[in-house]
Specification:
2 copies of one chain form a homodimer. By secondary structure, chain A is an alpha/beta fold. In chain A, 45% of the residues lie in helices and 12% in strands. The first copy, chain A, is built from 18 helices and 14 strands. In chain A, the strands form 4 sheets. In chain A, strands 2-8-7-6-5-3-4 form a 7-stranded mixed sheet, sandwiched between helices. In chain A, α16 packs across α17. Chain A is globular, with a radius of gyration of 23 Å. The mean pLDDT of chain A is 95. At the A-B interface, α1, α3, α4, α7 and α8 of A face α1, α3, α4, α7 and α8 of B. Chains A, B: It comes from Riccia sorocarpa. Chains A, B: It holds the Pfam family Aminotran_1_2. Chains A, B: Pathway: Amino-acid degradation; L-alanine degradation via transaminase pathway; pyruvate from L-alanine: step 1/1; Photosynthesis; C4 acid pathway.
Chain lengths: 480, 480
């Protein structure tokens, strides 16, 4: 008989085993199987706009193509295929590299792009930003993990995470051996912040011997779609300062806002606007990406983090750790430059860029309405309006019969519901349990990314399934 | 007074603090400063070919440009700028994606590229490869870290690493909280494997309560440049099988071979050729990348790992962890496809591709000779021939006067030497202590990447500095 493996499921790193990541969990795997079998699947499990038909913007992609093939710019025919400002912009970025996109950059990213990001932040917030405190990363997720890795020392270190949350946080905290301290968003007030709950969770965690070191918030929210008020952000900042907690601001959806009452405001802007010692003391790390907004360039893996009031030696330590992987991918860095420095009025490519980006954002805004209205038209389903980001997170009130059937099938009730939905309609969602939900409530998460054309049919198909499901499982148990 | 930081240098993760990474350490930082001040620096600290003037190959970059800007293929003028097989290849890769290069791929990478890699491995080794056991990563470094993360459970888990080593290994093992168990290569026999030392290091580690779980080897060697014999690989495999150790094969330099006696042979091929139970039992993970070879596409961050005889549930666990970062960058994945499936004779782009790649490899071979000969012409310097990879690792015999001067300056002797070299010549190297070296010996690591034209002048400049340094510090101490 063969000896047992060294890397046996029972003998690998416990933290690896304990980590779970629902966005690509059981539902995604089943959906992938069904797709292989020929079933048409609508993947709404991940915010992956291009996979659902969103077209990339022309100008940034022209620049990216020229950066990959700079020799095209020596060809007299180049202007037949490329806009003049795309050519000059490609030269601009190539001049920042140490040998084109095939050369490693500094491990923090290209200094020139970090400078452009600092200018973008200054323009957005009205407060200066230091490029030395901006690191570029292979997508925002990697940046989050780099910071958590420095923050978390052992299982007694806790990080506050909103529930429902984006599972990047639960997965990374588990993998790094820390403790997730949940704080609950108020579903009944459109997933708003509940500072009373936040304070009580901190107190409970401390009673249990946890050192609360970090607080994550996501604004606009994932999976909950809410946009935080300036007042809420101020409360978070004051609380973190008072309780000596580092604030991690996940602001990757800052361009994805579908209401006009609460436009996006960055935590950095609120902090700096508060003035006084707090504005120079609170430790804040903010994250952004090319994957969301109207670019939706997920596959390019371009993200950045900005550190505010972080100890200079800690900045150095993060630089050292980033160095181990040498450099983030260089084209993703250039895409970041293109995101923060779009064509301006008067530029050759401006009209097209403006039209393309406006069309995407307007359509997302419409889809946010179609989707949440569609959910609210279903039996036993209630959904807050998707104010921002790319997701809806409706509550599904499952009848006792459904809960019993799920138990009999050995599944969590929301998993059971989502699997039935997938088999019946091809709509691939993620069960709320992957994001966290109050005990006894059940949710599903979908993206609002299926195309505007397809969405009415998709919502009708959802309604047919849901209402049938509710009818079936609302019958007395004896009749099932 | 401001309260102390939450993320204070004294209160962050100890493993982060303990990690060191010499390739971008003190010497690199000083070189960057000097460069800012206007000094001409020759960066030989990192194997970053394009930064030292190597041109990217035309065909892969044409394909990459079209993948970034697929709309070019709808333009009737496209054939003025792009080869017909570049167009068809771009369509081929785009068809593998779920929405172009802006969409996340599966977290293991595009199935189509993984299939092409499996075919490449089959052709290279003569043994089948399963695409389900191939994961694509943002450069090979990330793949190494993923596997080490599953392997290492706590500080009692040890990983054998050759000394001198590539500091990715020491840094990652420290960061993950494991223990590096060193085994020494025999410098006097061209950095060959010393199985007696290996066995004795395992015994010592076990006596100290360490569970030895992994063994890393690098073939061709970094920083040592040696090419392992088939016999050596067989010994490693037998030893790992007998001692129940997972073998990690860093084979990123497999195309960089500058002698004809020992062509590259993969660990997988040797293992499969051994037949019997061992070929089905030994746990092996092999790594490769687009960053080295004649592509040198470091900035694209494309790497893969192939798992052989790894427990299927462990493969699943690695998939789950990879999912947290969603997907490796997609263009890096396509570059991997281009690496393993180059144009064939008869293809439109073949002659150019063949000429470009041959020129690079032939020039690297010449540079390996110029550099090692150059070192051996210097006083107190001895250098093994760079049989493969991209580095030379000469031993520098420092006179007692130099060691005393280094001590007085508060520097390790090799750091002292490298700093003086940098200030005098602009040549940025890495001190041997960053890679590990036998107690009392001193080395420097350089890449062989400065251009063939520049290299004679660079080596002359090195010799002038070195011989002057040796003369200065060989004087009796009283005269210094």
């Amino acid at each position: 008989m063969a000896p047992p493996k060294v890397m046996h499921p029972d003998s690998i790193n416990e933290n690896v085993k304990r980590t779970s990541y629902a966005v690509r969990g059981e539902l995604y795997l089943r959906a992938s199987e069904l797709q292989k079998e020929g079933k048409k699947i609508i993947f709404t499990n991940v915010g992956n706009p291009h996979a659902l038909g969103q077209k990339p913007l022309t100008f940034p992609r022209q620049v990216m193509a020229l950066c990959q093939a700079p020799f095209l710019m020596d060809d007299p025919n180049v202007s037949l295929l490329f806009a003049p400002d795309a050519i000059s912009r490609a030269k601009h970025y190539l001049a920042m590299t140490s040998g084109g996109v095939g050369a490693y950059s500094d491990s923090r990213g290209l200094p020139g792009v970090r400078q452009e990001i600092a200018e973008f932040i200054y323009e957005r917030d009205g407060y200066p930003s230091d490029p030395e405190h901006i690191f570029l990363t292979d997508g925002a997720s990697k940046g989050v993990q780099q910071v958590l890795n420095a923050l978390i020392r052992n299982e007694k270190d806790g990080v506050l995470v909103p529930i429902p949350q984006y599972p990047l946080y639960s997965a990374s905290i588990t993998l790094l051996g820390g403790t997730l301290v949940p704080y609950y968003l108020k579903e009944e007030v459109n997933w708003s912040l509940d500072t009373a709950d936040l304070r009580s969770q901190i107190a409970t965690a401390r009673k249990n011997g946890i050192t609360v070191r970090g607080l994550v918030f996501i604004n606009p929210g994932n999976p909950t779609g809410q946009c935080l008020t300036e007042e809420n952000l101020r409360q978070l900042i004051e609380l973190c300062h008072r309780e000596r907690i580092v604030l991690l601001a996940d602001e990757v959806y800052q361009t994805n806002v579908y209401q006009d009452v609460r436009p996006f405001i960055s935590a950095k802007k609120v902090l700096k606007g508060m003035g006084g010692p707090i504005s120079k003391e609170l430790e804040l790390v903010s994250f952004h990406t090319v994957s969301k907004g109207f670019l939706g360039e997920c596959g390019q893996r371009g993200g950045y983090l900005e550190m505010t009031n972080i100890h200079p030696q800690v900045v150095e330590e993060l630089y050292k750790v980033a160095s181990i992987s040498l450099s983030p991918n260089v084209t993703g860095q250039i895409m970041l430059g293109l995101m923060v420095k779009p064509p301006k009025p008067g530029d050759h490519s401006y009209p097209r860029y403006a039209a393309e980006s406006k069309a995407i954002l307007e359509s997302l805004r419409k889809r946010a309405h179609i989707m949440t209205d569609g959910f609210n038209a279903c039996q036993n389903v209630e959904c807050n309006f998707t104010e921002g980001a790319m997701y809806s997170f409706p509550q599904v009130k499952l009848p006792p019969g459904a809960i019993a059937a799920a138990k009999a099938a050995g599944k969590a009730p929301d998993v059971f519901y989502c699997l039935k939905l997938l088999e019946a309609t091809g709509i691939s969602t993620v069960p709320g349990s992957g994001f966290g939900q109050k005990e006894g409530t059940f949710h599903i998460r979908t993206t609002i990314l299926p195309s505007e054309q397809e969405m009415p049919a998709m919502m009708a198909s959802f309604k047919r399934f849901n209402d049938g499901f509710m009818a079936q499982y609302s019958k007395p148990a004896s009749k099932l």
